[in-house]
Amino acid sequence: MAQRWIIHADLDAFFASVEERLDPSLKGKPIIVGGGPGRRGVVASASYPARVYGVKSAMPTAQALRLCPQAILLPGNPHEYGRVSQKVIDLLLDYTPLVEQLSIDEAFLDVTGCQRLWGPPEEMAKTIQQRIRQELSLSSSLGVGTNKLIAKTACGQNKPGGLTLVPSSQEAAFLAPLPVEKLWGVGEAILPKLAAWGVRTIGDLTRIDIALLQREFGIVGQGLYLHGRGIDPSPVVPEVPAKSIGHEHTFEEDLEDPGEVERRLLALVEKVGRKLRFHGARGRTITLRLRTPDFVTITRSRTVAQPMAADQEIYQQARKLLHRHWRPGMKARLVGVSVSNLDYPLAKQLTLLDRPLDRLSQTLDWIREHYGEEAIRRGSLMSLPKIERLQDAEVLKGENHKE
Ligand SMILES: [Mg+2]
What we know:
By secondary structure, this protein is of the alpha+beta class. The protein folds into three domains: 1-167, 2-Layer Sandwich (Alpha-Beta Plaits); 185-228, DNA polymerase, domain 1; 245-400, DNA polymerase, Y-family, little finger domain (Dna Ligase, domain 1). Helix content is 40%, strand content 20%. It is built from 17 helices and twelve strands. β5 and β6 form a beta hairpin. The longest helix is centred in the middle third of the chain and has 21 residues, at 258-278. The N and C termini lie far apart (54 Å). Magnesium ion binds next to β1.
């Protein structure tokens, strides 16, 4: 088989850079795109002049403004971010149909076998970076490697504006000196254990026996073993439209409190909503699945006139279904929610909805994509047992799109 070559392209300070495109007088100034400095506003993106002061994405806006009081705070412009993001994807598609979009500002390209057309992968990456700069006035960082893991890690090494190539057969040597937390799959949950074993770098990790990794971390341990050595066979997968999008969860203990079921339902709806928006899809039919401890599964649907993609709308319908079919004394072993009857009017805009109303969902999506599932939770999911506090999210929404 021919040597695989993967490029990872990541736009630098994307939201802030799009704001600079819209208003060039912002160039070179500290910009923060994010929610208002009220208690729950967070930074979605910061320009590099703001980052100098320690401002980071996902940081509370109030804290960011303390670090950099002169920063210009902007509420964000999701529609424009989506439009520009699609232009970048269209540009990437000039080189290969194998483009996998990872989030609004990141994508993998499988350019294996493209050399005859476009030259060596590094040249190709250079051309792409120049075109993004010249045609779209955006700075990007690119990583080139023999697999996705290496391309993405390489990309993160020289930001902003970098281009990093890891030659074939240098994968393990490239990773070895990097801090272990830079490795895909190493999260907060396993860091303490690795630290206890004296694992600081990815190179240290490769000295840990696979049996021990598996015993300690299960399937994740296998992944760590391979990733630590720079091995990642996963393919670049272009998106294909789905017929329905859903999530379900089996609980460790059966739930009997309908309030608790509601709470789990909201968490599932958020996952479904995020996926819908990522695919630029909306759906008119919502289906709720409930399984009782004796494995009876109840599946109930309702179809609405207006297609839905916002968490709030989907949740309202799901909750109605739950209340209609929940009986006193009932217990739930599994809850699932899915949206079907999909159309893709927004596919060209990727994650973004026409309506500014959904900026909160957008921002949450973006932060989760960048920082993982646990990076941020809606106020109502933090610790409150009941879902009646959904207005918390609405408060943030109001804050977010005050223009
Ligand atoms: Mg980026």
